[in-house]
Amino acid sequence: MGNSCSGLKEKLGQRLRPSPTLNFIRSILIPKKKKDFCVVVLGSAGVGKSALVQRWVNSCYSDKYVPPAPMADVIYHVPDGFFGSGTKMRITDLPGGQLYPALQCLKIARGHAFILVYSVTEKQTLEELTPFYELIREIKGGNLYKYPIVLVGNKCDEVRRELTTLDGAAYALKWNCGFFETSAKKNVNVEELFFELLTQEREPDTTPQPTPVKSQMPNIAEDVLAVCVPC
């Protein structure tokens, strides 16, 4: 009788155990919380995505462009004060353009936060972010408010600009997300950008919270931008 019961329990356990296929799907679609904080960086080629990541992780900058490896993540060990010991920020710097559409969907599905990067020196790079934003909204669906999104105008140290700070702020208002102007080269607002994402993830809420619009423009522009962008 004992052996019979034992065999029945074993068979029942096998039937209730998730299949390998189901486990694989779950590992892809369910973001890893706390121990792995996944940040996805999106934008056109040449806007400075890799430079921003390297400035944040390694505190360095190089003028030499090295395309990101499609499947490689950059790891940043988060200070213990945010999520507790052992938490890692896993940053995915996705290649620009329309390459690797399946990879983009996979990484967005696993992402906890998103950085949309354009260059203030090229108007087209801001317009090209719209498909990325729509893809995030499509994949995250009704839970979009749980995942911080920050719009970033990089290369704000450049004298030649095709986009003003107000141009970026207008997109941020339309998309209901945060906004920074940054310079990976001069290390402007890079730390503020990533700490903003960490702060929002550490203090989740069921309703969007306002995030101040930030830039390195003159005081007059700062006064004009004294508005809050919900994120």
TrEMBL record:
GO annotation, cellular component aspect: membrane
UniProt keyword annotations, A-Z: GTP-binding, Nucleotide-binding
Disulfide bond in keyword set: no
Gene Ontology biological-process entries: signal transduction
Keyword GTP-binding appears in the UniProt entry: yes
GO MF annotation: an example: GTPase activity
UniProt-listed Pfam families: Ras
SUPFAM superfamilies per UniProt: P-loop containing nucleoside triphosphate hydrolases (SSF52540)
UniProt xrefs under NCBIfam families: small_GTP
Protein name listed in UniProt: DIRAS family GTPase 3
